Protein 1
Amino acid sequence: MRLLVTGSHGQVGTELMARLDRRDDVEATGVDIDTCDLADRGSAHDLVRAERPDVIIHCAAFTAVDRCEAEPETAFRANALATRYLAEGAREVGAHVVYVSTDYVFDGSKGTPYVEWDLPSPRSVYGLSKLGGERELDPAWTIARTSWVCSAHGSNMVKTVLRLAGEHETLSFVDDQVGHPTFAGDLAATLIALGEARAAGVHHVTNSGEVSWYGFVRAIMEAAGHDPDRVLPVSTTDFLAARPADAPPMAERPAYSVLDNLALRAGGFAEMRDFREPLGEVVAALAAAG
């Protein structure tokens, strides 16, 4: 089986390539912005024609959530238009597409976990552009929505917290934004399974364990051997009020974006672990790397 992974230098793409490279029954090619601009129609088409993959796992995205507010055209070009061009190429060669989407397609007002059949209602440019990408896909392809992605690679909350813990006595994080942390290694394994099965439709793909950002940061501190009581709760309202008046605009975060992995369970796919297990593994890996 031939697989094409876009965004191969990102957190999820790195984990995907590591897993696929260990397998003898697949041939995987990874591309990122330095090797192919997917938002250029000709480049996207040429890539798919040259590789002729059986499955495309499309991780490439403009994920700088706050920058999306200031650069909406860039966000839609990278997240929606590039997906359109990749989809055109996939139809030409008969490839199955697995598109990685986000909890930001919801407004966060439901108050109970979102299932795959809930209607999206994004409140940010990032969420709108990722929903735009979803709408470029064929019904027989896979949409894999995830949230709060972390790993030992790239920039993410785990690495940010560990850095801040070495610089400050106390840390303040919002306690009224709730979701599911997801670790890129576990996510990558499930994306491969969905692609191999050519699973159709929307799937929510997150680690389990509902938690606020405040609670997640406490868990990170505890996993790293720090005192979790150094973490202080703050409301989103107070956090925003404390920002400088000339600070750039921030995207609106969904207050409650817990994704229920209903379609994954019902489809017979393995449920993903509680986030605390891979969190411990990532913290240990970062400590070993120095």
Note: The longest strand covers residues 96-102.
Protein 2
Amino acid sequence: MEKQLNLFFGFLENEKKVSTNTLQSYKRDLKQFEKYIQQNGENYNEITDEEIKKYIKYMQEIGKKPSTISRGLASIRSFYQYETKSKNVEKDPTEGIQSPKIEKRVPSVLTSNEVALLLEQPKNVDLKGTRDKAMLEFAYATGMRVTEIISLNVSDVNLETGYVTCKSGKKERTVPVGNMSLKALKEYILNARGTMIKDENEKALFVNVNGQRLTRQGFWKIIKYYKEQAHIEKEITPHVLRHSFATHLLQNGADLKSIQTMLGHSDILSTQIYMQFQDESLKNIYRKAHPRA
């Protein structure tokens, strides 16, 4: 099975062009499944739907969340579909297996005042503060995922037109950058980044104190630090800024389709979750003004 898994991982990386994080998720899920079937003395190409059901039950018994089990099943399903097409397995054992129901959680969102308070914290008094100011402003202004932000190169940002080109696997989208974010970004690129980098060939837009591309963990630590400085009790992650970006756009009149495009959602159903945050004042105005409300 190990040989076939490596071929599958190569297929995902080289042909499907999945992101590094997605590839790591596949590897974690499938290595765990491989360990399970080895412990039970099974051959991967002889697994039936009953064994898949037992594996799901096992995952539930060891306390895995429905979302984790569902993702794991999706990884296993993709692997067996690949193996079926490659003629290594006669039948996909995951066919007809239902994923556990996942209760949709309401995304955590900051108020406009909380966002303003957070973005006020980094000061342009040193190189790091200039970078942090630009990065937080940029995260809220574009709604981009943390992986997308740290993967950006300087060449992906057009300071003249005020747009950033976001590449995610084979997909690419262009997102506008607001004036306040653009101002902070120019300040960082022109007056801080050049001093922070140690290698003139470094392409990364956001770099750490060693002059190398910033990591996910580095980004999370920066947000946590400024959250504490702002004395905001809510948990704030890069994804909370993304949720806040979408919610505030919707509350201020942006249409759902445009928000979907900016967020890079392939399905508008993913974007519709923000509808629950529609400003109550709009509903009140409607009820008072519409003759049949």
Note: The chain has a mean pLDDT of 86.
Protein 3
Amino acid sequence: MDEPLRIIGNGTDVPDRDVPDGLTDKDLIELYRWLVLLRTFDERAVALQRQGRIGTYPLYWGEEGTQAGPLYACSDTDWVFPSYRQCAVATLRGAPPSVILGWCRGYGGPAGFYNPRTYRVAPICVPIATHLPHAVGLAWAAKIRGEDTVSLAWIGDGGTSEGDFHEALNFASVFKTATVFVCVNNQWAISTPVTRQMATATVAEKAAAYAMPAERVDGFDPLACYDAARRAVQRAREGGGPSLIEAFCYRLGPHGTADDPRLYRDDREAERWRPLEPVGRMASFLARLGVLDDATRDGIAGEAKDRVAAAVRELEAIEPPGPEVLFDHVYAGERPWSLEEGLRELRALRRREGD
């Protein structure tokens, strides 16, 4: 089993490696800014859920590098396909954080759903792995059109047990689509450990069945995630076909705010992994390079807090959509008769309740 690619050391016995090609000091700061924004959003969303102001929330504390790193390797014309644990990744492309919070609150329509074409970020996918064939389909369509668009999709280790995962990898390999699959192997599918999900020692080796290159990286290392994704994206854009990246890490917190991991695992195991979390690790690395000082670090933290705080204010000012929104955006064209009938019944019910 290959050791995962690691670039950021620990400042002592594990040395740092060179910064990946193509990243300037400005890029490093921007990537760190992305990490901090994701972390700030996640922490505030958990607090909002505990206050009853949003619904059940899929926290990703510690996995920010698996999101920011691969996204930074993409161009603005590439499409990305998040699962529920990458729910905030659209904010890195300019989507309002308040809209993501609206989604977490259960709003439909514009209050809880950004326009995917504006940001080239597909809808947040809650069903496990169903977005992977969509990512492959988009890349296939781009190939037919002669475009060099790459699609990048995230999946958890539990998702590799789904048929959609294997179907997507198989189709992508046969048709050589420009698709990069990023599997965040945090070693837990809710309460099921990875050793009970698959017989292979790694996720990466599954790619061999599809004649697809694969690479394992330290999922707590944003630069390793970026570097592997950069090479995979470049290969895909040049017509080399799909790749699989296994970002090996550990789920430091619960599966979601409705989960209590103490019921099925020892908290001490998570604590052993916690020092490797990516935000502090990246900050220490940049400090060793002389790129990040205390003032810049504090400024970035303040910017993220202000942006998320503004998003919460915007969320509270949103006029909640009515139940009619359930019937919108289901079909691209006209509603079928069954939905029209249901909408008429809903409106009639609301009129009676108003009398």
Note: The chain has eleven helices and seven strands.
